[in-house]
Structures are given as structure tokens and as C-alpha cells.
Amino acid sequence: xxNKPLIWTFxxxxxxxxxxxxxxxxxxxxxxxxxxxxxxxxxxxAGVTYEVGxxxxxxxxxxxxxxxxYAEVDLYFGLVGKPYNELKKHELNLGLDLKGGMSxxxxxxxxxxFVALSDNHPSPEFRKSIEEAKAGQKxxxxxxxxxxxxxxxxxxxxxxxxxxxxxxxxxxxxFKPKSTDDEVIEVLRFEAEDALNNTENIIKKxxxxxxxxxxxxxxxxxxxxxxxxxxxxxxPERVRKTLGATANLEFWExxxxxxxxxxxxELEKSLSxxxxxxxxxxxxxxxxxxxxxxxxxxxxxxxxxxxADIDSINKVYRDTTLTPxxxxxxxxxxxxxxxxxxxxxxxxxxxxxxxxxxxxxxxEGLDSLIHGEIARQTxxxxxxxxxxxxxxxxxxxxxxQDKSMRGKAExxxxxxxxAREGVDPLTGDVEVTMMMDGPGTVKWRExxxxxxxxxxxxxxxxxxxxxxxxxxxxxxxxEIPNGSSRITMATATAWMIQNCxxxxxxxxxx
Length: 510
Prior knowledge:
Elements: H1 4-46, H2 55-67, E1 72-75, E2 80-83, H3 84-90, H4 95-99, E3 101-108, H5 110-117, H6 124-136, H7 144-155, H8 163-166, H9 181-207, E4 216-220, E5 225-231, H10 236-244, E6 249-253, H11 257-275, H12 284-298, H13 307-316, H14 330-336, E7 343-344, E8 354-359, H15 360-370, H16 373-378, E9 383-387, E10 394-401, E11 411-412, E12 416-423, E13 430-436, H17 438-451, E14 462-466, E15 469-472, E16 484-488, H18 491-501, E17 508-509
Helix pairs in contact: 1-2, 1-3, 6-7
């Protein structure tokens, strides 16, 4: 037993490693337990009827947890402090067996991808090969592209060259004339893998709003399937609908933020009357009159007020029936200012459609305010507020022009007939060159003409929206008369534009 000391050293190190990893789970569970206690105490004090685990309790618990993701958690008897979200990332993944949740298997139809790439080629040999490959996939571990190639070799008795099947106006740069069948198959293999990669990215983006920290997205290249494991999900039907929905690509005109900011202020005042009725002016007529007097004094011709003078004037003409904001508690400020307490409106970029920025964890709660009944009664019918894709736990809020007044985009992905993805040599960003069809060209020309630079004003942004999230908002620099455009954007959105160009959808099925 000469190796006995070495074995014991290994056992001790292994034990310490396991204890170290388990400690993360211990502290996160302890912290989550304290948040549960706060949720229970809050509901009890508010006199709300609930049961632990029901929707009322879960909504408050998740909200409290999301609001405190950056809170410091004391580790190892208070010797070390770490943010809760960092601990959550490093804790042991309990998986579905121990934690519960849901698992979904989604399938990308590579067969439909090939048919779309061929522009629905009518060749009987091609169609038969596609069907045989689909049937063979049920009992084979081979990739679909290999099954298709095997079937093509069997069925192509007339010696038709494969490039002729796939070479068309949309794909002529991918499938070049005189390419060998092997070269065509390699392009198809790349396209299938690229479709899986980008669909995987889209699914990950769709999972983000649910705040699931230990989600697993597993791509199976051979079968074209994507397995999604979501531990701890308590609303599987909602998640299922979100994951399986067909991605919807739309182009929207936008407002400049300063054009509609006063409408947001008006909305917040209307919301405040509901969320903080006790903090409103008891005498609105007096408050309005005092405000008029204050402005009149400040606007006195020739007056050169110093800041100290301005502060004194503001104090004299303050509505004394109101508690000054400086004396409000943080909780009261959040009630009185339900929007500006969570949306940073000071970050408005001059001339852009960005109204402000909010934490991703606050978006769901804010949605009920900016899209609720009070918002519908207060905001203009052609103003639509849409969140941008999450970037580093932050989401931008865009002001969209809804000319239809009912959420219907003037231009969508169905108008795109050709698109090529490339890389901007100067910035390294992904860019897409796209071409619209006839009706799309007319609408695109009108849209860009309305939003190009005019009267010494810079061009407006056009928001590219997918899954009700703004992924890109390029500025219109000039009218585009021929339907051809070059746009810089996120990879997932670029892929969706290419999908539309090939007249196909991301076909996902459970």
C-alpha cells in the first residue's frame, strides 16, 4: 500500500472540491429562503389572500429575487461577499430530476430548408430524394444531408447535375455553375449547420426574459433537433408557446424620443394617480396657479437669476399640500414615479428613437404599465413602445410609429426576395445586403423617403423587430428607390432576413 498517502490526498482534495462547489448552492438556497420570508411577510402585511406556490406568491417572490440579483451575499461566516447572480452561475446544476421544470425537443426541418434553397424545384428525382431522406431519418443516425445525397445517387438515373437544382436567382452565389455534386453537398451541409446554429441562438434569446439561470440548450446536428431543458419553470405552457412560435420579422418607422417624451410624462402622471393617490396634490387648482406664478417670476425680462435665487423662488412657490420628493421614502418614490424610478430617461440619445433604458429584470413589470389600460387611454394610438434585445442585462425602450393603429407593420419579412450576409471591413460588424420584391420596393422607397435627412435634421431610425424585440435600428441616410439596402445588425436577425429571402420560415415542432 505504498500509494495509500497519494490516494488519501486525492480523496481529501476531491472532498474539498465537492464541499466548495456545494457551498455555492448552500448560500444561494439560504438567500432565496430569506427572499421567500420577505415575500410572505409582505403579502401578510398587505392582507392579500394567497398560498405559497400560487401565482400571487410566485410573482412577488420572483420580482423580489430579480430586484436583488446584484445584492451581496456573505460567504464563509461573512469573510467574503459575492453578488447573488454570480453565486447562481457557479452553483451545481441540479437538473430536471432534482429541481423539476420542463424539457422540450424542437426540430428544425432541414428538408424544408433544402426545398427552399432549390426555390421549390419541380424535379421528380429531387422530390423523391427529399422524401426518402425524411423517411430514412427515422431509423438512421446519419445526418439528413448524407441521407439526401445517398437517395439522390440512387434516384438520379438521368445524370442531372445537382447544382442545377439549387442554382437560382436567390442562391446563385452559393451554388455556382459547374459545381460538382460533392461541392454542392458541402454547401448544403454548411447551410444546415448554420440554420441549426442560428435557431439555437434565437431560442436562447427567447429564454432570456424568463430569467432561468441553469437552462440547457443542446443542439443535435445529425437529427436537426434542439433539446431545451429549463429547471424550475412554473409556467411551462407559456414557455412552450414562446419557444415554438414562428419568428416574425418587421420593419417599423420610429419617433424621435423628444417628440413623444411629454406623452410619457403624461402617462406617468396618470399612473401615479393610481399607484400613489395619497401623494397627489390635494388642491390641483392651487398647484397649477402656483406653477404659473413660479414660471412668470423666473421668466422676468432682464432677470439674471443665480442658482441660489432659483432655488429660493422654487421653494416659495412650491405647493405646500405636497410632500417634497426629497422627504419621500424610496418605496414612496417608486409608487409616485412608477416609470422613471425604473427607466433611465436621462439616457435619451438626441435624435434617436430610444426613450430610455431599464434592467431586463424590470421589463415584465413595466410592460403592464406601458401597455396596460391606462397607457391605451393616455398615449396616442400611433405610438407603440417596444423593448430592444437584452444587452448586458439592460434593455432599451424604443418609440415606434404604428401608422396602422393596430400593431400591423407596413413592411415585413415576406417582401424580402434576396439577401446576402457579410462583414463590414471597417467595423467587423455583421451586415446584410437585401433586396425587396416589387410591392416591397415601393413601400421601402416611401418609408425611406419619409425618414431620410430633411430640413437640416438627420435621418430617422427604422426599427427591425423580431419576436416583438428591436434587434437593430439603422438610421436612414437617403431614399432607397430600388429596394436594395445594406444593414448592420445582430447575427440572429441577419439570419432571419436571409430566411425570408429564401421564402421560408424557421420550422420548429415539438
